[in-house]
Amino acid sequence: MSPKDENITMGLDRLNALFAWWGVPAANGNGQIDGQMKRFQAFTSDLQKTYGEAYSHQMSALFTANERIAGSLQEFLRCRQPQDVIAAESNVLATIMEGASLQAKTWVELTQKVQDCCTAMAREAADEIRRQATEGTGTKPPAKAAPSAAKEPSKHLAHA
Predict the structure, then answer these.
(1) Distance between CA atoms of 160 and 154, rounded to whole angstroms?
(2) DSSP 24
(3) Rounded to 5°, angle at Cα 157 from 151 and 159
(4) Is the CB of residue 73 less than 8 Å from the CB of residue 92?
(5) Where would I find the H helices in the chain?
(6) Range name among 4-8, 21-25, 43-47, 100-104 with the lowest pLDDT average
(7) What angle do CA 120, 125, 128 make, to 5 degrees?
(8) Distance (Å, whole) CA 131 – CA 148
(9) Residues sharing a CB contact under 8 Å with residue 50, sequence separation 6 or more, in sequence order
(10) Every domain of the chain and the residues it spans
(11) Are 99 and 65 in contact (CB under 8 A)?
(12) pLDDT tens digit string along 94-118?
């Protein structure tokens, strides 16, 4: 265990003790707050990883487009005929459009991954609340609905 993890664990122990002293029901010593904090930590770690990957893809697309535009602009220096100028302009425009398309694709993928991550986190929180409510009332938990045909997101972007 790293010193940072030990500090987090020690801090969570103190937080649990403080909540238990205040009489907060979630701090009853069975690690519920630890579990919630670990889920939140995994959630933020997954988001950070996803944003990092999106940034990397954006920079890669930008550098590739810049290199291609520089090459296309050099074609202007070699132009001797009007049709050569039109071809060089077309290459520059195609490069710009391809770069914009790659960046838009990266944004779409990022949005989908963040949505999946947030959905999984909200689903886990709702399940936890349901579980706590059924434990508190001593009733049987409601039957889960049949899984839909839609794609279910994996736990915190495990597929990403």
Answers:
(1) 9
(2) -
(3) 65
(4) yes
(5) 3-22, 32-77, 82-137
(6) 21-25
(7) 125
(8) 22
(9) 110, 113, 114, 117, 157, 160
(10) 58-114
(11) yes
(12) 999 999 999 999 999 999 999 998 9
Q: Tell me, what's the pLDDT at 53?
A: 93
Which pair of structure tokens corresponds to residue 149? 């045909």
- Give the total residue count for the chain: 160
Mean pLDDT, the chain, integer: 78
On the 0-12 / 13-18 / 19+ scale of CB atoms within 10 A, 35 is middle
Spatial CA neighbour of 130 closest among 120, 117, 139: 139
pLDDT score of 33 more than 70: no
Instruction: Give me 109's structure tokens.
Output: 């993928």
Q: Whose CA is closest to 88, among 99, 70, 71, 76?
A: 76
More confident residue, 80 or 125: 80
Separation CA 152–CA 7 (nearest Å)? 35
Is 0.90 surpassed by the pTM of this model? Answer: no
| Count of CA atoms in the C-beta half-sphere (13 A) of 47 | 13
